[in-house]
Each structure stands twice: as C-alpha cells, then as structure tokens.
Write a structure and sequence with these properties.
34% helix, single chain, binds flavin-adenine dinucleotide
C-alpha cells in the first residue's frame, strides 16, 4: 500500500492549485516543497487570464488577491514598424482580459488557502529522484539532514522543471527578461502594452498605481540594464518604449530571468504525470505559462476526482490526462514560440508580414475574438 494516493513534488502555484483542487476529494494528498513555508519574495509579474481567475475563484483563493490589477485593454505594436492592434475586454464581453499579480502575492494567497487543509505538506524537503513502478511511484528526498522515501499511487511532478524528465526538448532563446516596477507620468488606464522589438517583446502591465515591466532582451544586455543607475535604466527604457506612458519617474525591484523553451515529449506515464513548467516552460510573451499550468492542474484534479480510488495513477487515468491536455498544451507552446520567432528579428520581409498581421488583427473583430478566447481559456477556447 502506497503512502499517498497523490504526491505532489513542488509547492509553486501549479502544485498548490493541484492540492487545493483535490481538497475534499477523499484522496490522501501530500506535497513536498524545497522552500520554507513562506513563499519566495518573487516580484515577477504574472498576468492571470480571466479563465485562471475562474479557477482560483472556485478554489477560494481569488479573494486573497485583492491587489490584482485588471487589464481592460491590450495594445500590441512593433517598434519601428507599421501595424498595431487592440484587444478589449468590453468587445470580448468580459469584466477584464486578465489580472496582474506578482508571483509572491499569488503564492502567498494559495499558501493561506492551503493552510486550511490541503493534505500533508512537507517544507524544506528536496526531492532528488523519482521512479515509476507498476503499482506506485517512489520519491527520494532530503529533509532535516536525512534521506527519506515516500510512495504514491500517482506522483505529480510540479517542480517547475528542476528535476530531469526523460525526453525533454530544450531550446535556448538566447534571451532574458528584465522585470521591474516602473512609475509613469501618465496613468496606465488599465491598458497592457506589448511592444515587439528586434531584441524581443517589451511588456508594460498595469500593476496598482505603477506598471510592471517585462523587458526581453539579450542576457548580456539584461545584466547591463540591471547594473545601471535608476536614471540610466529609465532613460534606456524610455528610448525603447517611447512616451505613451509619459515620462518614466522611478524603477524598483529590478531582476532578470534567462528564457528557454522546455517541452516534455511525454507528460504522463503510469504512476507519474508532469504539470506546469515541469511539462512545458514557455517564453513569457503573451503571459501563457502559468495560465496553461493552472489548466494542467485543474484538469488533472477533475479526472482524479472522477476516477475510482483504485484507478488513481493507473493506465486509464494516464491515457485520459494525456488526451485531455494535448490540444491546449500544443496550442500554447506553438502560439508563444511562433510569436517569439516571428517578432524577435530584423528581417525586412518579416517586418512587413508582422505589420500586415497586426493591421489585419486591428481591423478584423472575429480574428481578435479568436485570439482573445484562446489566450483566456486555452486552445479549446
Ligand atoms: C519574467 C517572467 C514573467 C512571467 N509572466 C507570466 C505571465 O504573465 N503569465 C503566466 O501565465 N506566466 C508567466 N510566467 C511563467 C510562470 O512564472 C510559470 O509558468 C510558473 O511560475 C510555473 O509554475 P510552477 O508551479 O509550474 O513552477 P514554479 O513556479 O517554478 O514552482 C516550482 C516549485 O517547485 C519547488 N521545487 C523545485 N525543485 C524541487 C525539488 N527537487 N523538490 C521539491 N520542490 C522543488 C520550487 O521551490 C518551487 O516552489 C512568467 C515567467 C517569467 C520568468
């Protein structure tokens, strides 16, 4: 008999949402997290889609995100080229296209909700390896200076991609994202700006009274930007973004993240599934990674809640999970990768094609509706 029905490796947002979604299922759920019980102070901005809000609401975690700033409109343009497009919440008949929170605040809200009962939680415990057997999966982890083992009918790996997974496709974009909070001379009006530049996309997201910056560039430039004085940084940002948000007045909390695409060839095998970034780590363009990961967790939990306890982790569940995630996952990976490859270069013919694409999107409401639905609810719209 296994120690757990479901054992989750990783207590990031995807692992936490999976644990919350299994609350009250009657399954014995455990979670192993390398960090301590207090979430990392990670100010990385996360644009949660309206679809993710619905998931968090159902789990009781949305109320804890009072600081979430709604996005009413997304303005897309390319630097030095023609063509622009606007996506609008009113046109999509939604209260908002998405909501900006920071990673730390989201983790804290999920942690608070889990405190009210999300199964066994082990903190400061680091999994070093896992193995899938016929009847159970076994993990080896270090905690309190000793090595331990735990077994589960189903192991859900939600470690953000830290542990090696068989047959993982990795593509280094040769890019890094610089993040910061920037105060502007003009109120953001709940508009998110996505501006494509040859070095990569530059996003300015409404975040409280300020904007949250995600500036994609080369790793060398990212390091350089983080080392500049505040005034030097703001001058570079102003030159790259322009004056749509007035004169930038301050920037706090600069950090940078290397960007790679990682895609697991198989997301499930008997006794083990990989979810969230462990299954697919995406470029942050268009803010899809966590939204896709939350749908992984939500749909896995739905299947687990519906199956007999004896079938947890068995071949039928594994087949059903793989089939259920195929289209949404492939769509999310394809869409973000295509955006990065199409927009992050200076080839003149592509510049024209991009301009025409943006102009068509701006002029053609059904195309906007198609994109908005998929960004918010996933590839199945
Ligand atoms: C700059 C930037 C901006 C982004 N913006 C957006 C956005 O706007 N919208 C969006 O949807 N996504 C966005 N993303 C992507 C988003 O951050 C990820 O998709 C999301 O964090 C994935 O969550 P996760 O729980 O799968 O993994 P993680 O957040 O990486 O969490 C993994 C957890 O597992 C734990 N762990 C790791 N290894 C082990 C181990 N061996 N044993 C035990 N525990 C372990 C870690 O401590 C961590 O708590 C952005 C990413 C970046 C870099």
């Amino acid at each position: 008999m296994a120690d757990f029905d479901v054992l989750i490796v990783g207590g990031g947002p995807v692992g936490a949402v999976l644990a919350l979604a299994l609350r009250g299922s009657g399954l014995a759920v455990g979670r192993i997290e390398a960090r301590g019980p207090h979430p990392a102070a990670d100010a990385r901005p996360i644009a949660l889609s309206y679809g993710s809000r619905l998931i968090l609401e159902r789990l009781g975690a949305w109320e804890g995100l009072a600081s979430a700033t709604p996005i009413q409109r997304i303005h897309v343009s390319q630097r030095g080229g023609f063509g622009r497009a606007g996506l609008d919440a009113r046109e999509a008949q939604l209260p908002a296209l998405g909501y900006v929170v920071d990673y730390g605040a989201l983790s804290e809200a999920l942690g608070r909700e889990l405190g009210a009962g999300g199964g066994v939680q082990l903190f400061q415990a680091t999994v070093s390896e896992f193995e899938s057997g016929k009847d159970a999966a076994v993990v080896r982890f270090a905690a309190g200076g000793a090595t331990h083992h735990a077994s589960a009918m189903l192991l859900a790996v939600a470690d953000g991609g830290a542990l090696p997974v068989a047959r993982m496709r990795v593509h280094d974009y040769g890019q890094a994202a610089v993040t910061a909070r920037v105060s502007c001379g003009v109120p953001h009006g709940n508009v998110a700006y996505e501006r494509f530049t040859p070095e990569g996309p530059l996003a300015m997201l409404p975040a409280g009274d300020a904007v949250a910056l995600v500036w994609t560039t080369t790793p060398v430039h990212a390091r350089e930007l983080c080392a500049l004085t505040e005034a030097g940084f703001l001058a570079r940002l102003q030159a790259s973004f322009g004056s749509r948000l007035g004169t930038f007045q301050g920037a706090s909390g600069r950090a940078w993240y290397p960007l790679v695409l990682k895609v697991a060839a198989h997301i499930a095998e008997p006794r083990t599934v990989v979810v969230g970034n462990a299954a697919q780590t995406l470029h942050p363009v268009a803010g899809q990674g966590l939204n896709l990961g939350l749908r992984d967790a939500w749909e896995l939990a739905a299947l687990l809640r519906d199956c007999d306890r004896a079938d947890v982790g068995g071949p039928a569940l594994i087949r059903a999970y793989t089939a259920r995630r195929r289209i949404d996952r492939a769509g999310g990976i394809f869409f973000t990768d295509l955006l990065v490859r199409l927009f992050s270069n200076e080839l003149a013919p592509l510049g024209w094609a991009r301009g025409l694409g943006l102009a068509a999107l701006g002029a053609f409401p059904p195309a906007r509706d198609f994109i908005v639905r998929r960004m918010i609810f996933g590839a199945r719209g």
